[in-house]
Each structure stands twice: as C-alpha cells, then as structure tokens.
C-alpha cells in the first residue's frame, strides 16, 4: 500500500462511517464481507483535511482505471449509492469493488473478495473530479 494505510478526507470519512452503520445488516454475503473488511481497514486509516488530500487517492467521484492482470481492464467512477449508474460506469461506494478501491492510491495492488471470487486488482490511473462535482460541496 503506497501510503501505508487507507487515506480518507475527513468529511468523506464521516459520510462513509454513517453509510457503514446503515448498511451493517445487509443480507448480501459478499457485500457484508466487503463492508466488514473495509470497517477494519478504516480503524488504521489516515484521515486528512480537504486541503491535505493527495491527488492519487481514490475517493468519492474519483474516476479510476483498474486491471486484473491481463484478464480485464475497466474505468469506473466511485460515487455515492444514490448516484450509481452502471451504464455510465458509475459504481456505488457500497459495492464490493467500490469498497475495495476506496482510500487506496495509484499503483496500489488490492486483494479483495469480489463477486467473481478473490481478485488482485491494480490501480492504473486516478483522476479527481474537481469543481462543483467535488464531494465536499455536496454535504
């Protein structure tokens, strides 16, 4: 892990913690497993103010290109659950892949239990959405 632990912006951290509290009793096994693992990782996360945030860290509204070896490569945007739109590659933070990537950084390799089984996913590109789409302006 490039930065030693997950890196989250303070307002996003509060938002994510509230989502986890609401979602802690999901009946979907893979999602619950991912939520539990993510909750454990949050215990050691670095929490930064907005002005301290690193541009290479995946957060809400980040567009990220990922690959699993030579098997597949995909570009997705991590969004709030209410903004998910799979046709436009907008993936909810509360999906296994959204949870798996959140707080990781460019070039990190993430090992996570996804719906297709345990996968190794490499983060190839991270692009922050700026301006009015920024999370801090949404809360």
Description of the structure:
This protein has 139 residues and is of the alpha/beta class. The protein has a single domain (7-130), classed as Roll (Chitinase A, domain 3), CATH 3.10.50.30. It has helices at 10-23, 29-42, 96-101; strands at 7-9, 46-48, 63-68, 72-79, 90-92, 109-114, 117-127. It is globular. The protein starts with 6 loop residues before the first strand and ends in a 12-residue tail after the last strand. The relative contact order is 0.22. Pfam families: GreA_GreB. This is Transcription elongation factor GreAB. One of its GO terms (biological process) is regulation of DNA-templated transcription elongation.
Brief sketch in words of this structure:
Keywords: Elongation factor, Protein biosynthesis. This protein is an alpha/beta fold and 139 residues long. 24% of the residues lie in helices and 29% in strands.
Secondary-structure element pattern, one letter each: EHHEEEEHEE
Helical content band: 10-25%
State the domain count: 1
Name the CATH class.
Alpha Beta
The quaternary state of the protein chains shown equals single chain
- Average pLDDT rating: 86
Q: From the helix content, strand content and strand pairing, which structural class follows?
A: alpha/beta
Percent of residues in beta strands: 25-35%
CATH-derived architecture? Roll
Annotated CATH homologous superfamily: Transcription elongation factor, GreA/GreB, C-terminal domain
What does the overall shape look like? globular
What is the gyration radius calculated from CA atoms? 14 Å
Number of strands: 7
Alpha-carbon distance between the termini?
29 Å
- Order of strands across the main sheet: 5-4-3-7-6
CATH level-3 fold name? Chitinase A, domain 3
Main β sheet profile: 5 strands, mixed
- Catalogue the unreliable spans: 131-139
GO molecular function: DNA binding; RNA polymerase binding; translation elongation factor activity
Pfam families: GreA_GreB (PF01272)
Domain Transcription elongation factor GreA/GreB C-terminal: 55-127
Protein name: Transcription elongation factor GreAB
């Amino acid at each position: 892990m490039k930065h030693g632990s997950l890196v989250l912006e303070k307002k996003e951290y509060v938002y994510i913690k509230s989502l986890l509290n609401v979602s802690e009793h999901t009946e979907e096994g893979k999602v619950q497993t991912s939520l539990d693992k993510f909750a454990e990782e949050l215990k050691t996360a670095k929490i930064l103010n907005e002005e301290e945030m690193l541009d290479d860290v995946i957060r809400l509204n980040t567009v990220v290109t990922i690959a699993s070896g030579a098997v597949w490569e995909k570009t997705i945007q991590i969004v709030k659950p209410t903004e998910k739109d799979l046709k436009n590659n907008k993936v909810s933070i509360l999906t296994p892949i959204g949870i798996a990537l959140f707080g990781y950084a460019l070039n990190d390799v993430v090992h996570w239990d996804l719906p297709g089984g345990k996968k190794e996913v490499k983060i190839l590109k991270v692009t922050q959405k700026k301006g009015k789409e920024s999370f801090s302006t949404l809360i």
